[in-house]
Amino acid sequence: MQLKLTNSKWLANLLLIAPFFFWGTAMVAMKAVIPDTTPLFMAGVRLVPAGVLVLIVAAILGKPQPKGWIAWLWIALFALVDGTMFQGFLAEGLERTGAGLGSVMIDSQPLAVALLALWLFGDRIGVWGFLGLVIGVLGISLIGLPDQLILNLLHKDAITIAGSWEQLFASGEWLMLLAALSMAVGTILICYVCRYTDPVVATGWHMILGGLPLLAVSSGVESQQWINIDLAGWMALGYATIFGSAVAYGLFFYFASSGSLTSLSSLTFLTPIFALFFGNLFLGEFLSPLQWAGVGLTLVSIYLVNQREKLAAANTSLAEIASQSPAETQLKQAIVSLKEPETLL
After folding, report:
1. Whole-prediction pTM value?
2. How far is CA 144 from its chain centroid?
3. How many helices, marked H, and strands, marked E, lie in the chain?
């Protein structure tokens, strides 16, 4: 029985981490295929077929379809923000920058989610949670920002820093920042959407409704969207669609609708780690010492955010013990020692 419970816990943890694994590896797949396609077409292809797959699974599971104009209104808003805007900004930004550097902007969204969750739902994160988020942003900054820019900041080289930031935002990272803000708002919106419809069904429809405008704009302003894509490219797009969208978004918004938004969003810091690891494996990208330091800080941040309540409780207990007089401490120890034989029996 204990083994079964342990296996269930491990499975739950794996499912919780799965969206961020799939997002990180999908970034690598998209980066590999984007020279042979166009950004808006890639974004639309990543969404619409994935939405159809999610709705098929929802139908098999017997999930009810949305009812009433209020439900469809929330889904439409969700589709606009987390579908059209997020995927559009992400694809356009990915074309203009590297996956690692762009992920720094995208993965800053847990801070925005934490602030919005505090404002709207009273989801307080405490000192440990805030410290974890700050360390997480520092970690992904070390992972994604150019080493030279970080060294210039440390040496306070104002002229070089100004030039580095100009080059940074001229290359499209601001689009990744807009993508991060869109995803943060989308994460908050799912809480409102789920008041009127099932989260899995809403995820499927938001992909379809969010992806169709991207394909429509692509047909009008882009050309040769699929002519140069080979078999490996279609397989990469298929992976980004099925696992990087259908499976990842279905799991993410299911968990977002039933848990702590701040804790879940903090796991987003795992995405660039997976992206960099598999980028090294398949695309020959390597981690610098600063990036390895960022990986370590990222893991620390996730621990702090997700264990913030236990850490706060432990601190409170230590503070109470420290405030007690020696006589009180000895009395409590004596009481515990008297109760121990009864407990053992």
Report:
1. 0.69
2. 15
3. 18, 0
